[in-house]
Known about the structure:
This protein is α/β, with parallel strands linked by helices and about 160 residues long. The chain has helices at about 15-30, 50-65, 85-100, 115-120, 135-155, and strands at about 5-10, 35-40, 75-85, 105-110, 125-130.
Amino acid sequence: MMSINIIAVGKLKESYLRDAAYEYSKRLSGFCKLNVIELPESRLSENPGEKEIKNALDSEAKIINNYINKGSVYNVAMCIEGIQLSSCELSAKISEASVKGKSTINFIIGSSFGISPIIKDKADFKLSMSKMTFPHQLARILLLEQIYRAFQISSGGKYHK
């Protein structure tokens, strides 16, 4: 069974978001081994400058780096400059990773300021959810839903219409 890791900087603060994440985690349990790894977010001043943001992203990158092994792992950086995929294309991308011998897929969600270029450069694929801006915590729920939809598509389930 494939392992899916959601490596996320920050925690889900709202109970309704935690409930949604739990629901998709339950649904995904029939398709994969899901791990959600919440990493600490760097504390920044009220109006951080570029250097403070860069230092925070680099600090977060050091922690993220501990979780993004190579070998049989496929690393996906969630970033705005990434490629946008349809649900069917994401399903195919997950299936393709499995066929190529990747037993684990890491989806990496950075802080509200993004992901350090250090991590983006190590990613096998850069994925953008949309040109629209979403609340940072909601992005995790949207990603979980799309991963669930991808598995439903590949298994011929009725969830995807």
